[in-house]
Amino acid sequence: MKLLSVVIPCYNVEKYIDRCVETLVNQTLGIDNMELIFVNDASTDSTFEKLCEWEEKYPESILVVNCEQNGKQGTARNIGITYSNTDYIGFVDSDDWIEIDMYKKMYEKAVSTGVDVVGIMSKRVDGTGKTVEEASFKGKLDALCRKETDRYPGLPGGIYCGLYKKQLIVENEVWFPEGLAYEDNYWVAVLSYYINSWYIIGEPLYNYFVNQNSTIMQRNAMHHFDRLEIEKMKVDELKRRGFFEKDKARIEFNFIKLYYINTLFIIITKMKDIPYDILCQMQRELCERFPDFESNPYLSELNRRQQLLLKTARLDMTEYDWLRVKRAYLKDMGKLPD
Asked: 236 lies in which domain range?
């Protein structure tokens, strides 16, 4: 039996997939101990053909699942989880690459500590491999943590920086939303309520490629507004599972930040035109769901710019007003509008 599975969603990554696979098959944990599940999400380039070539080289360790319809990363990850036959699951994005000893270190720590999740640090890198930014982290590093004494702080760089007990995911039926971008925002939040123990290795072992064509980096893309639906789904699901009343203030704060502030930041920095109707919808949704959001005890965690953006939630804004907000914000950042 393999020691762990890695699920890799793939869509039109012919330029990057070989780099990604090479760092996986050469892991010091040993390719014979790994189950690599590549889910080709209806690519229109040569991604699928490249994956099949790798599958031929490592038929005992690589499985390629081909989807005829594009379901986005959430669908691909759910498919990968169902194909997994191991006790531990990790995720890698197909345009990224990992350090050669990443999964050995993560697996050994998972077994020795028995925790639900082992995480590692990450770094953002450009096409040459130069580090652009290293992930910051507010939680404890290189320490065994438990829910009884610590609050789960999340992972330093996202879901791909974790190795998870498969049992934790499957028994609690924590699946990714399908057909939407920003699906990991939902999955991480829901899963976090079932995580009782964790260990974060303080080494940057995951290389996140700053790809301007990636889902998150694209400019003027309507899929950025999928995050609005994701955040509403998240709150509704946490209510359904009975977590909302127990952690209302924190859930409310995360909605304020991810639904309103962060989306407004994306609109300002990645959108050429002001989507006035969507901005009005965002204001209404926040005020109707959480009418007393200004009294949330965690608002002090917001930085100055975030606090300024939040002040717009109650204002009766015209399109011209939003343009003024955008220009002032970009000027404060030291950037001029396109």
From this structure: 222-333
